[in-house]
Each structure stands twice: as structure tokens, then as C-alpha cells.
Amino acid sequence: MGVIQFQNVTLDFPVKGGAPTYLKEQVTGRFRKEGRKRRFRALDAVNLDVERGEILGIVGPNGAGKSTILRLIAGIYRPDEGTIRTSGRCVLLAGIGTGFQGHLSGRENIKLNGSILGLTDGEVTERMEDIVAFSELGEHIDQPIRTYSMGMKARLGFAVAAHLEPEVLLIDEVMAVGDAAFRRKCQARIREMVSGDTTVVIVSHNMNTVASFCDRALCIHHGKVVSGPGPVEDAIGMYETILAEEE
Amino acid sequence: MGREVIITGGRPNPFAAPRLMVSRLLQHRRLVRHLVVRDLKVTYHGTIIGYGWTMLEPLLLTAVYWAVFALLRGNEDPLFVLEILLGVLVYSLFSKTMSQTTTGLVTYAGLIKQTSVPREVFLWSAGAFQTLRFLLSCLVIPPTMLILGVDLDWTLLLLPLMAIPTLALAMGFGLIGAVLHTHVRDTAHVVSILTRAGFFLSGVFFGMRHIDPVHHELFALNPVAILIEMSRSAMTGDTSLLEVEWVARTLIVSATVLVLGAIVFVRREAEAVKHL
């Protein structure tokens, strides 16, 4: 049995008219046909089976539903129909450094961010010096992170994420962090993480990343899987065909 | 092999919802603690006396009330100043918890869409932070009583317990408000107006002893007013103006609102998150 299983997973999102933001729209919307609940089908009966230790790539145009699949695996969204089975701790790497607090020091933010991402206090303490060393922030680590540049914040965020050791790692376009040297370091770290038992799902628009990292890939378009999961080159080929048709 | 998680469509059973919320909070109690510590550090960041403000603020408020009521209006009763102070503290706990919880899902939208932390963790951390502020502020009550020449009674030890039903009531309303606020963004404005109106209707600046006994039953229908009266009784040890029936009703209402809030939140939060 796979570590991640999707059975006919369907997810709808409310769209304008279906999601009135203010009271006036909510009230007047009741009396207008276009104001009643309208939904956008983000995923349509998706089936998926990812084995332990496998690296799956997900490609597709913008708005196809790639990131939504990752968020469903992570338990952020609940499907409207179908069933999702996951096994082990899932960690989503997206929006590196989300939840950082500007007035707290780098070290305090490591504790907070680690806790948000599921590490125990003991695990954070144990990994603190490794995280600090990986971030290459030196003495800045004890300064409030409002004094950090965007690159420094991204490095700190990735350093925490890189020391989580999850069973299932979900990567959403976060392979391009910091300068060229740090990016190489990040990619080496991800390779290290995926070389073990970790199951990885990568969403990326960079086909080189998908081709070099993934064992299998799928292409998704308008919420439906149109290719795979199967050979990486098939999914990339389908993605390029869709892009060519849209142009 | 890690723990298997099965996620399906549909809403959790309403009878299981409160227990589900409790188990999620217990599982993430360390994160609640981290978020409360973060809020404390951020709130008092850059101030000279830091956390001391949690105690200095009520002391300064007491001085203002004493100036207004004792000096200007000639009210010599030192208890009156303390009653107002306690009314302000209890009502602040209620109103700040409710308003912060109501806007909680929208405030934490960035984190909620990136992490699988149960959403109620963020809302309860706001409630825990306000409770901690209330408890720290209560530390100024005994010395202020001594300064104003009011005798200390052992029932004062019950004062911190008043935070429990107050928090329960505020969190219950806030959990429902949080779900509503993702659908209708006017909710926060409505809550703001209601809490301001409630400030004048809950006996913050007056108490049961200032109301005509004919209206006591009506006044006692407001659970926040009774919570404030209960706190005042804990401070003075005088329960002559509190009926057991009012206290029991208030405690039952607080617990019921909390359970209802938990049921609504657990069943509706998955849909609410789609509106963020």
C-alpha cells in the first residue's frame, strides 16, 4: 500500500458570488441568481498512489491544481468527495519562513517556526546549532529578524525546514532560495533528504528540477490528471503540449 | 511506518466535535505556549518596564477612577473604585478574547494555508494570552485593597477562577464568529459594536447594588454582568446580592456556548478555510 493514496478526490472552492465578502453582498446575493453559491472545481476525481521512498513530480500550468494536491496531502484542505490516506509526518515546504515574527531574534523564531512545523521542544533544542550553522547567519542569529534582508529570512526559513526529517516531504516551488551558492546547498540538502526513506512530492515549473529529482511525474490540467503518474518525460511532454496549445 | 491518517469529505460528528477539539489542543499545547510567549514578547517589546505594564496599567486605571469618583464626584467608598477596576479587567478579558478569536482565522490566514496545525490552536492561543494578562493584572488587586483600607478576605483566592467561565463564554462566541468572519467580513465590525455596547450594559461602571432590586432579574440575564458580579463577590467575600440560580445559569450558559462554538467550528472550519 502506498504512503499517499488519493481515491476519487474532488475539491471545490467558492468563487465570487459564492463567497460574498461583505454583508451587503451576502444579503443582496440571496436574491440574485448569480449571487447564489458558485463553485470552482479545483480537483476532479483525482486518483494517486505514491510508494514509500518515491519522488513524485507534479507539473501543469498555473491554476491547474498542483499546490492544492500538496495542501490536501498535508491536511490543510479537506476533500469534498473521495478519500485521502497518508502515512507518517507530512511537512509542506511552501512560503518559506511563514509565521516569522519580526521583533523576535532568529533563534527565537527557530523555536516558534519549528514548533509550528511539528518539532517538539527537545527536537528544536537538539537541532538548533545545526540549523544556525546551515543558515550561515553567524552572529545575526541573535538579532531581531526585522533587521534581516529577504535573503537572510529565506535562508533561516529553509534551514528550519531542512532539519525537520519528515516521512513525507511536500515541496512547493521552494528550490530557489537565496544566492547561487545557497541554492546549490539547498538542492544538495533536498537530495540528501530524499535519498533515504522519505517520500517526496515536488511541484515545480522548472522542468530540469522535475527531470533531475523525480522517479515519476504526473501532469494536471483544469483539476484533472491528464498524464501519469508515470515516466517523467511523458508528464513533461504533456505539459509542454498544453503550454503550446494555450499559446 | 508512521501514523496513518485518513481524510474524507463530510463534516465531523457534532457529538464528537468538542472532544476532537480538546484532543487537538492537548496535542499542540506546546505550540499554544510558544504563541502566548511570542504575543507577550511582541506586545511589550521595546517598553522600559516590559511585562510590568500588565500590572501598571490597572494601577493607573484605578488612580483615574479614584480621581473621577472619589475626588470629583465625592464618592468616598473605596470599594467602588475597586469594583470598577475589576469590572474593567473581567470585561477586557471577555471582549478582547472574543474580538481576537473572531478575526483569528483571517489574521492567521498565511500560516493556516501553509501548515497543517489545527486552526483552533491559533484562536485558543489568543484566549490564553488574554487570560494570562488578566491573571497578571489581578495581582494588583490585594495591594490596592490594602492601600485603600479594604480588608482582605480568603474568597479573594477564588478571583483567578473567574477567568474560566469568562474565557469559555468569550471563546464560544469567538469560535462561531471566526467561522462567520471568513464568509462575511462585516462580522468583526458587528462584534466590535456589540462589545462596546456590552461594556455599558454589563455593569462595568455600576453593580447589582446600584440597581433597583426590581430590575435585578433582568440584569441577571446578562451572563457577563453576573461574571463581573461573581468576581466582585470573590474580592469582597459578600455574596448577599448574588442568587445561586443566577450563578448556576451563567455557568451553564458559558459551558453551553463553548460547546456550541466548538461544534460549529470543528464542523465548519474546513469550508471556512477555503474562503481565506
Description:
The complex is a heterodimer of chains A (247) and B (276). Chain A has helices at 23-29, 66-73, 106-116, 121-135, 150-161, 180-194, 207-213, 232-246; strands spanning 4-14, 39-50, 55-59, 81-87, 90-93, 168-172, 199-203, 216-221, 224-230. Chain A is an alpha/beta fold. Chain B is mostly helical and 276 residues long. β4 of chain A pairs antiparallel with β1 (4-8) of chain B.
SSE layout and pairings?
The complex is a heterodimer of chains A (about 250) and B (about 280).
Chain A: E1 4-14, H1 23-29, E2 39-50, E3 55-59, H2 66-73, E4 81-87, E5 90-93, H3 106-116, H4 121-135, H5 150-161, E6 168-172, H6 180-194, E7 199-203, H7 207-213, E8 216-221, E9 224-230, H8 232-246
Parallel strand pairs in A: 3-7, 3-8, 5-6, 6-7
Antiparallel strand pairs in A: 1-2, 1-4, 8-9
Helix pairs in contact in A: 3-4, 3-5, 4-5
Chain B: E1 4-8, H1 17-27, H2 29-43, H3 53-72, H4 78-102, H5 104-107, H6 109-112, H7 120-138, H8 141-147, H9 163-183, H10 187-201, H11 216-219, H12 223-236, H13 244-274
Briefly, what is this?
By secondary structure, chain A is α/β, with parallel strands linked by helices.
Please state the average pLDDT score of chain B.
90
Structural class by secondary-structure content of chain B: mainly alpha
Following the backbone from N to C, one meets helices and strands of chain B in this order, namely EHHHHHHHHHHHHH
Helices of chain A, by number, come to: 8
